[in-house]
């Protein structure tokens, strides 16, 4: 009798504890309740900060590298040649991270935690395997690859030094960037932000020390980045395997479930293609610019790409903040809330990109001087910047449409428009526009605004027809 009484008391205490924990989880992670815009903002603000800080890994490197004594613009150009390879690494993190996170959110919206857990675990296994493979392959083909990407004998010195060290952090990049979406998918936006803050702060501190105090040059920049990426990866693994998340990661690798991996890759391939095609475009642009203008204009494109990455961070953060909210509500069958999320994401992105476009028109020299103040670079860069950022606001339409397709698991459309904007529009125009009279090498910069207009409108208005009037039509 007494033992039953004690059992009952223990059961009540356990029930209350678990009930409080479930209630706290629901309050923090249930995107089907409360204001849709507030849910998105609560995720988008820390994720935008995280995106901006994540960019500091490479951006701070470029700023310091552009000011290495005696290196002039060659060091900046050399490191710029490694961007396609870095983009390829990011492409694989998107394949499994951005492919798995929406599936995880949809499963959570359906209250299928077992499936959500399986998605995260399989993504982890694939990220580890891919990180190891990228490192090995990178060292095998590093030199011929850089020359194929447009390196000259003068710029290979810097590109090779940077890449050989950067490749050591491939696995850390995979785990840090690839698993962070699963932190955000569970509603821990601030924790996801800390993941990147940790690495960014370490990078900011170590960069000047390694580059200027120890005189390691571009090797110092790469080493600082690798150490920062390692710290971020450790933080992510410790958090996801700890007690706070609803879905806990098992750090021991196992044979993947290929059915689940197939689902992840089917959805994540659109994110992969976006980053992969960025690599292709960078390669094509670098080769064309080197042909028509030499290493100076490759340096100009390096600067403009860096500025574009900074200015798109708010849009990317907003899109990534909206994605788990849209996915969760779609899984929960809340169609009107999904529409509200799409409207809010698009409005914020359009307003911001219009402001960003105006700022680039008004203060181009200020942005370029952040990286390098050489008169030749400024003379070549200012007109190129005016062209490159023309119609910048239409880029927001691409992100809104693409994010919606991915959030709702519409892999076919997400893949189609990932390929359309870069491969169908940008690459051919990068080859053809410089052939036009009085256009010349500036045609390489003109391809970007044309792709924003055509690709962005095509993606967004297709989304309105397929999703808004199709899958989200109230029955």
Give structural notes.
By secondary structure, the chain is mostly helical. It contains 17 helices and no strands. Helix 11 crosses helix 15 (395-407).
Key traits:
475 residues, disordered N terminus
Q: Helicity, in percent? A: over 70%
Shape: globular
- Total tally of structural domains: 1
Number of helical segments with 4 or more residues: 17
- Report the sheet-strand fraction: under 5%
Query: Main beta sheet: strand number and arrangement?
Result: none
Q: What is the radius of gyration computed over CA atoms, rounded to a whole number of angstroms?
A: 23 Å
Structural class: mainly alpha
Average pLDDT rating = 84
Count of β-strands:
0
User: Poorly predicted ranges (pLDDT <50, ≥5 residues)?
Assistant: 1-28
**What is the N-to-C succession of helices and strands?**
HHHHHHHHHHHHHHHHH
Summarize the structure.
With 475 residues, the chain is mainly α. It has helices spanning 2-29, 36-65, 74-80, 83-109, 113-148, 153-166, 170-185, 189-213, 218-240, 258-292, 295-331, 335-362, 364-369, 375-388, 395-407, 411-432, 442-471.
């Amino acid at each position: 009798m007494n033992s039953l009484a004690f059992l009952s008391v223990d059961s009540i205490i356990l029930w209350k504890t678990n009930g409080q924990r479930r209630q706290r989880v629901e309050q923090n992670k249930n995107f089907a309740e409360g204001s849709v815009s507030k849910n998105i903002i609560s995720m988008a603000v820390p994720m935008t900060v995280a995106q901006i800080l994540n960019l500091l890994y490479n951006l701070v490197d470029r700023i310091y590298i552009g000011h290495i004594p005696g290196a002039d613009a060659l060091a900046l150009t050399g490191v710029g040649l490694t961007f396609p390879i870095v983009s390829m690494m990011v492409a694989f993190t998107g394949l499994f991270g951005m492919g798995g996170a929406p599936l995880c959110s949809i499963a959570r919206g359906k209250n299928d935690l077992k499936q959500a857990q399986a998605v995260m675990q399989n993504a982890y296994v694939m990220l580890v395997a891919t990180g190891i493979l990228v490192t090995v392959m990178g060292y095998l083909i590093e030199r011929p690859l850089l020359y194929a990407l447009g390196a000259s004998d003068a710029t290979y010195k810097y590109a090779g030094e940077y890449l050989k060290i950067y490749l050591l952090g491939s696995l850390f990049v995979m785990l840090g960037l690839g698993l962070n979406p699963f932190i955000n998918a569970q509603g821990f936006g601030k924790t996801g932000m800390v993941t990147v803050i940790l690495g960014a702060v370490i990078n900011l501190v170590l960069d000047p020390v390694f580059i200027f105090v120890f005189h390691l040059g571009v090797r110092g920049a790469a080493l600082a980045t690798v150490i920062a990426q390692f710290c971020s990866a450790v933080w992510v693994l410790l958090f996801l395997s700890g007690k706070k998340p609803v879905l806990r990661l098992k750090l021991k690798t196992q044979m993947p479930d290929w059915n689940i991996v197939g689902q992840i890759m089917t959805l994540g391939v659109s994110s992969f293609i976006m980053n992969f095609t960025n690599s292709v475009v960078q390669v094509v642009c670098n080769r064309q610019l080197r042909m028509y203008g030499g290493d100076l204009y490759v340096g100009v494109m390096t600067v403009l790409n860096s500025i574009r990455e900074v200015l798109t961070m708010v849009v990317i953060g907003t899109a990534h903040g909206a994605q788990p909210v849209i996915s969760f509500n779609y899984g929960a069958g809340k169609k009107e809330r999904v529409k509200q999320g799409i409207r809010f994401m698009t409005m914020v992105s359009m307003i911001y990109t219009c402001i960003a476009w105006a700022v680039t028109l008004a203060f181009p020299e200020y942005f370029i001087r952040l990286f390098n103040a050489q008169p030749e670079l400024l003379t070549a860069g200012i007109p190129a910047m005016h062209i490159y950022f023309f119609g910048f606001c239409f880029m927001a339409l691409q992100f809104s449409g693409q994010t919606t397709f991915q959030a709702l698991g519409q892999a076919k459309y997400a893949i189609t428009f990932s390929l359309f904007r870069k491969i169908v529009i940008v690459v051919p125009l990068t080859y053809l526009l410089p052939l036009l009279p009085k256009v010349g090498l500036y045609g390489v910069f003109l391809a970007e605004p044309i792709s924003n207009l055509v690709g962005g409108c095509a993606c967004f208005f297709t989304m309105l027809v397929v999703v808004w009037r199709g899958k989200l039509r109230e029955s």
